[in-house]
Amino acid sequence: MSINLLTRAGLRPLTAIARAGSRKYRPGLSARNVVPARQFWKNSTSPAQEATTPQEHLVHDASNAGQFDGKSSKNLAVSIDGEPKIFDSIFLRDSCTCPECVDPSNKQKLFQTCDIPENIEGVCQTIVDKEHGWMVEVAWQSDVPGYSSEHRTKHSINWLKRALTTEVELRGGVRSDERVVWNKEIMTKNNKWLDYDDYMANDHTLFEALVHLNKYGLLFFKGVPDSEKSVEDIAERIGTLKDSFYGRTWDVKSIPNAKNIAYTSQFLGLHMDLLYTANPPHLQFLHSLRAQSPGGSSLFADTFYAAAEIHTSSAFHFRTLCTFPVTYHYHNDSQHYHYTRPTIELFPYPKYSEPTNLAIRRVNWSPPFQGPFEARIGGENQSALSNYLSASKAFEKALSSEENMLEYRLKEGECVVFDNRRVVHARRAFDADEGERWLKGAYVDDDVFFSRLRVLQEKFEGKWVSDGVTREAVK
Ligand SMILES: [Zn+2]
C-alpha cells in the first residue's frame, strides 16, 4: 500500500507518552489545539488547502477530554458533515486494515475481536492522504497482545461516514430494493433478451443481465451455441455452478418411466426447484438444445406479485402463508432430502408496511415436491390446516391466473434464466413421440450471484448493496 502523506503531525510512541505523562503529550501543533473545535468542523476547504491544519475533523465532546490534548480515550469524536460523531475505540481497532491486521494478499483478518483488551484506548490525530483524503490515525494504549507500540490504525473520514450511515440504515430498517413485482402485462413490456456473444464478451452486458435479474428475476438469451457446454458457460460467467444430485448440469428430456416428474412429457405445474434442501438454488438456467416436439412451452409467474395480491385481498391468508410450515422432500433411490419452510418469508427488519414495499424475502412454492404435513395435523389443530388449505388455494389462483403468467416456448439456441426463490416455472405437456425436446440446465447459488453483482456495482456505480443497505465504495 503506498500512502503519500501530505501532512503528518508527529505521533510519539506510546512509551514516550507514558514517560511524558498524558497531560503533557501534544500530537500535532499544540497551537492548533486552542482553536475551538466548532471552527474546525465548519471549515469546508479542500484537503489540499487544509494541509496545514492537521487536527481537522477531530472534535472535543463533553464526554471525551482526549484527542486534541493527546490524551487517550475510549471513544473518538470525529466531525462528519459538520456534526461530531462518536466512534467506539473497539470498533476502530477491530476494523484496522493495516498489513499487520489484515493479510495484504489473502485479505484475512490476522487477529480476533476477542483478543482486543476491554480497556483499549486510542490516541488520535488526523492526517491527509493523497489516495484516501482526510484520515484519522490512532495509536493504541493496551493494544491487542503482540502488536508493537508502532502500530497505527488509519481510517478515512469517508469510510467512517459510510460506516455510520450503514449502521443507522440497518438499525432503521431502511431497505434499498430494486425489485419490481410483475404480472404478464408488466413483464411483457419489460422482458429482456440479451445476445449470448455480447453477454460473454462485455462486463457492461453482464452487469445489465444481473441488474435485470435482480429487478425482475427473469431473463432470456438468444444466439446460444448448439453445445452441451453452453449453459455452463452462461452460468460460469456469473460464478461457480451449484452442484446437486442432478449433476453440475442436467438434462430435461423425456425418459420412459422417469423417476422425476420433470423427466416426463406431462404437464408440470408451477413450482420451484430443490425446496427440500437447506439452501435451494437462486438462479436456474435452461438452455434449449432441441425443440422439435410440439407443445412444451414454459410458463413463468412472479410469486411476489401473487403474494402482494393476497395481502391486499386477505391479510389473514397472507399471515397464514407466512407462518404455516410446509414440508418438502425428495425420498427416492438412495436420496432422502427433507426440509420444512413457510410459503412466504419476510425480511427480519422492523419497518415494513406493505409487501409491495418488498419486505418479502422469498417465497417457497413447490407442490410436486411436497411431503406430508408434519405440524398442526391433529384434531385440535384442524383450523390451522384448513386455514392453510384456504390460503394456498387463493395463492395458487393468483399465481396461475392468465393475467399473471408469462408463457414462452423456448426455441433452439435460446436460454432462460430465472430467480428460483421468486419466480415459479411450469411446463405445458408436449408430445415426445413427435420429435426431440431437450433442455440443459444449471444452477447458481445466491452468494455467487450477489458477489458478482456487488463487484460490478462497485466497478460501474461506485457503490454496492448488502442486507438492503447501499454502501458507497469508499476506501
Ligand atoms: Zn492494524
TrEMBL record:
**What range(s) does the TauD/TfdA-like domain occupy?**
194-443
Q: Provide the cofactor list for this protein.
A: Fe(2+)
Protein family per UniProt? Belongs to the gamma-BBH/TMLD family.
Q: Which Pfam families has this protein been placed in? A: TauD
Keywords on this record? Dioxygenase, Iron, Metal-binding, Oxidoreductase
Q: Which Gene Ontology cellular component annotation is one that this UniProt entry carries? A: mitochondrion
Protein name per its UniProtKB record: Clavaminate synthase-like protein
- Per UniProt, what is one GO molecular function of this protein? dioxygenase activity
PANTHER family documented for this protein = GAMMA-BUTYROBETAINE HYDROXYLASE-RELATED (PTHR10696), OXIDOREDUCTASE AIM17-RELATED (PTHR10696:SF25)
GO biological process terms, semicolon-separated: carnitine biosynthetic process
